[in-house]
Write a structure and sequence with these properties.
By secondary structure, the chain is mainly α. It contains 3 helices and no strands.
Amino acid sequence: MVPPHFSRSLKYECIYLKDMTDGFVAQKEIGDWINFYNRIRPHSSLDGRTPHEVYSKAQGMGIPPPL
């Protein structure tokens, strides 16, 4: 299941702004955006950290990934 805020961000920050002429272009643009969302874009709900930072820290502490 995809959280609603993720879907909304994907649409407004990527899909609606890009000229996706075919599925290959869409796959690349969406993949690039997901990488940006997880590794570069700070999240206020994570105290300005990225999901990747939070996940990496949890892994280093031996916390299993969510199912």
